[in-house]
Design goal:
155 residues, GTPase activator activity, 76% helix, coiled coil, 0% strand, mainly alpha
Length: 155
């Protein structure tokens, strides 16, 4: 809108008062519009701040959930490695024992030889991947890509 315009005086006193009154009325109306705009802006700001606060709470919960799930995954992976080592030892023991080869069928012996001959984890990797979370998304969900900056949580 245009700025405040002072009335040009120079007519009769009555006409000058009317011009001044109109100028005051225009200024009053402009102030009312600005006050309404200010109220709407404050209401919108309050809504946006409430939404932001709700989103921050959701973000904090999501970060905590990711952290919990990562800890569970690390524990499960450690347990899997431990069980793989135990199984590897059992397989090696079975292959070394003379009675083991006699008690097992040829097919069982060849499977055990194949498993014992290479790292067990590599042999079980396809099975583990199919039963776990889809690893193709690992780059998107990698814990190294996620920021755990807790300074924002205290805001």
């Amino acid at each position: 809108e245009k700025g405040l315009q002072l009335p040009v005086l120079g007519g009769s006193v009555e006409e000058d008062y009317i011009r001044i009154a109109r100028c005051f009325e225009a200024t009053r109306q402009r102030c009312c519009r600005l006050e309404q705009d200010g109220c709407r802006a404050r209401e919108q700001l309050a809504r946006v701040e409430a939404e932001r606060a709700a989103l921050e709470v959701k973000l904090k919960h999501a970060r905590n959930q990711v952290e919990v799930e990562m800890k569970k995954r690390h524990r499960a992976e450690a347990e899997l490695e431990k069980q793989e080592r135990k199984l590897q030892l059992v397989l090696e023991l079975l292959m070394r024992e003379p009675w083991g080869n006699e008690a097992l069928s040829r097919e069982q012996c060849s499977v055990l030889s194949a498993l014992a001959g290479r790292r067990l984890g590599a042999a079980l990797a396809p099975v583990r991947r199919s039963s776990a979370v889809d690893e193709s998304c690992q780059s998107l969900l990698s814990h190294s890509d996620i920021s755990y900056d807790r300074t924002e949580d205290d805001v």
